[in-house]
Write a structure and sequence with these properties.
The chain is of the alpha+beta class and 174 residues long. The chain is 34% helix and 18% strand. Among the domains are: 16-72, Ubiquitin-like (UB roll) (Roll); 77-134, 434 Repressor (Amino-terminal Domain) (Orthogonal Bundle), CATH 1.10.260. It has a 3-stranded antiparallel β-sheet, with helices on one face. A hairpin with a 5-residue loop joins strand 2 and strand 3 (54-55). It is elongated and about 70 Å long. Residues 147-151 and 162-174 have low confidence and may be disordered. Bound molecules: zinc ion (ZN).
């Protein structure tokens, strides 16, 4: 048994007579409040010999995603991983500096999720500007404790009442 033994069937006629083919694809994606038109003349697909139904798989996804990243000028999964490794950071360390979940880095690098434009910019800044990497990462418990302050007429509180997001480390610094 190899991965080649995977044998999809046509969803329409249930035929297993599918052949490799290509298909022209035009799609529109919403991104940063605008519409991005992705147009490719030959996306790899499977075509049903019986009814001509076209099946889009992983290869098609990857081709469309690569074109989308090119049009929107987003770092590719390979670029993100290479830039991170060139600095010697683990996914967890980079996530700590960016103050995001390590799972996000992992998903971007595997291509499972496309980073937002804002996160792409943050990635570029953190990976290319050493000064940006000196920004404190997640607050240590001691630093979190120092955010407990007294509330008086100036509006300072005895407790950090700003954990509205429910996430640690999100308290306002002042
Ligand atoms: Zn079919």
């Amino acid at each position: 048994m190899t991965s080649q033994s995977f044998n999809p069937r046509c969803p329409c006629c249930k035929s297993d007579s599918l052949e490799k083919s290509t298909e022209a694809v035009d799609r529109e994606y919403a991104f940063e409040g605008r519409s991005v038109a992705v147009s490719l003349p030959a996306v790899p697909v499977l075509r049903c010999r019986s009814c001509q139904e076209v099946l889009f798989g992983l290869e098609a996804d990857e081709a469309l995603t690569a074109e989308f990243r090119r049009l929107t000028n987003l770092l590719s999964p390979t670029q993100i991983r290479a830039l991170r490794k060139a600095l010697g950071y683990t996914q967890e360390e980079l996530a700590g500096i960016m103050r995001i979940a390590a799972e996000s880095i992992s998903r971007w690098e595997r291509g499972h999720v496309i980073q937002s434009g804002g996160m792409d910019t943050l990635l570029r800044v953190v990976l290319n500007v050493s000064e940006a990497r000196r920004v404190p990462a997640r607050l240590s418990p001691l630093e979190q404790a120092s955010l407990t302050y007294k509330k008086d007429s100036t509006g300072w509180a005895s407790k950090p009442d700003v954990l509205t997001s429910g996430k640690p480390g999100m308290a306002r610094a002042a």
